[in-house]
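Action item from last week, closing it out:
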Amino acid sequence: MSELAQGRDFSSYGAQMDASLASKLEDLWPWFIEGTVVDKGCGTGRLLQAIAHRFPATHLVGVDLSEEFLRQCAVLHRGADWIQADVAQAQLPPNSASMVLFSSVVHEIYTYSAYNRDRVRHALRSAASELRPGGRVWIRDGVSPGPGTWRMELLEPGLESIFERFASEFKHGEGAAWRRLSDGQIELSAHLANEFLCKKDYLRNWHIEVHEEFGTFSALEWPSVLAEAGLKPLAVQARHNPWILQNRYDGKVRLTSINGEHIPWPATNVVVVGEKQSTS
């Protein structure tokens, strides 16, 4: 199978990925190392194109399982190497890469491995094997807020029916446990509330997005995940995308604790950086 999910609208999915390209690059540049850069789950290839523009001497490698995305990549940029392969596996010789990037792909590795966190750990160990000493893994993805119970008031018309659909269909029918407090007000775990917030607007690819779990790990879990892969944690930075907060969260829902205290918006994504240490 050349696509993880069948029936994906590639134009809208690619547009969603590229809409955050500027913020991804802002998060990447402080940690960037020239040399050989591997983008695992390269998608449309726009991230590597931007790297090539700024660092033309860098050797670029894009890896994706999607035949359609790799076709688009080859047209976009002929100076990179494009590899159709499982991004959880190593594609480069040991100790050869300066950076391995996972941009919005860790949650897909997890989701399409039957929600198996060990598959993500395997992907990070594979990436670490490809890195030269001093090389870095850079991750930008969704993030779980961690444990807790929240109350969520659904303010936008029609949002309650979308939530009920989410609660029934999430993770191939595993669903989401919740409790109705009143019309438009529900109680559920912080993690599930965040999952709904992250995907409630992706209606065009809903049949795919509703099964993806965006918050594979919380920010507090990431340092130990990196260490288990043999990587020194350099950064775990929770981020709030202002556009998402303004256009998808504000005025659409309200979050409170079980005691009625206001809860700030959870992070929309996290930037995680790990470095391979010298063996000498």
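Closing note: The first helix runs from residue 10 to 19.
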